[in-house]
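Morning. Coffee machine broken again, so started the prediction first thing and wrote up yesterday's gels while waiting. Chain of 473 residues, entered below exactly as on the submission form.
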Amino acid sequence: MHTSDFRRYARQLADWMADYFENVEQYPVKPPVQPGDIKKQLPPGPPLQGEPFEQLMADFDNIIMPGMAHWQHPQFFAYFPATRSAPSVLAEMLTAAIGAQCMIWYTSPAAEELEERCMEWLREMLALPAGWVGAIQETASAATLIALLMARERISGFHINQKGWHGQPRLRVYASEHVHSSIPKGVRIAGYGEENLVLIPTDENFAMLPEKLEEAIRKDLGQGYQPACVVAALGTTSSTAIDPIRPIGEICRKYRLFYHIDAAYAGTALLLPEMRWMSDGIELADSFVFNPHKWMFTNFDCTAFFVQDKQLLTGTFSILPEYLKTPIDRQVNNYRDWGIQLGRRFRALKLWFVIRTYGLEGLQARLREHIRIGQWLAAEIEKEPDFELLAPVPLNLVCFRYRPEGDFSEDELNRLNEQLLQSLNDSGKILLTQTKLNGKYTIRMVSGQVETIQEDVERGWRLVREMARELVG
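Came back before lunch.
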């Protein structure tokens, strides 16, 4: 493609993107397609000759877009959001155009130093401990795996990295019974074995019980196991339950366990001073992760991972072949040593654009509004005699179910709410997700996109009530 053509097509794409920003709600939030519908419209083999850009865009509009779920749709209340914003998109365009590989300072000096500064800004913005250092990872799942590997190497004195598991005791990892799926996956990959993940009971608010954690640790010590790591959730995926950070940290200090805090979604709320009750005791942690790509309006992927001990982190991952040595290695941070990946994208640029465009006060204003909307929805649900909240609402995730009058068993209510969720999602007008809390089928509704306003949530809540009541006549 010639530069003149690129310039013309890039302008067309800019217009397309701006139109999409303005008109995303005209699409069905969930595409009305079945498995295989998209693939059968695509040729079985690649083209022999190049095709014009106009044909590519026509197929994009006619084949790809009808098969997309629209995460930025004002009626997308499913999962935790994968946010985007105009400044972040513009930064991604620049990142793609530059095409840099940012594995070490020598290959992209500005990328390394911008990432270092942005992580220092985030540390200050979230009121994290002053001595912590951080790097941008691809996802919270990857960051949690990094933490599990750090825990493994600290408890083994780097023996497992060098010689494998031979001669080592069985290491144990502890987490809430409402643990995110990335923890058992990380435990598998890191070699602990999923049987060595100990799930700790929770209280009526679905937060980990510290006394049950200590009880499990002492039991394992008595049976010859080696406790290695505790993963606490600052906002579980099911209900944004907040594990008690300080009591868990004190137990970790007492038994010398590595302490990782998973704040993938809710961590962004620490931008608000009034929400920092959630992180009381965070100075006791060894590592902490949150995702700016979830609720800080930065395009996926961008995960902020902080550690207390830089030497433990780099000692776990650093391998230096001759072809990666440079004259200034001792003067800089080479982020290839701070995680699993060797190759790294220039993720800091979009984070920098977002922070500078909105400013701390602008980000805080949007978060406060999202939390206010979540509290409003929770209050509205409590007013309805045939709906009930199933979990506390500390932020903007609301967990509820439909409970009509009548003598319904729990199984019947579960089936009814499953039917309701399916009907809502199949309508193409709204998208929600589910979880199970105390065995109850629970509908999750979370609003956190940058443009979300209360009218969007009101419209979605109205649709939920209407479709629920149609189910039982």
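The chain has a mean pLDDT of 92. Going to sketch it on the whiteboard this afternoon.
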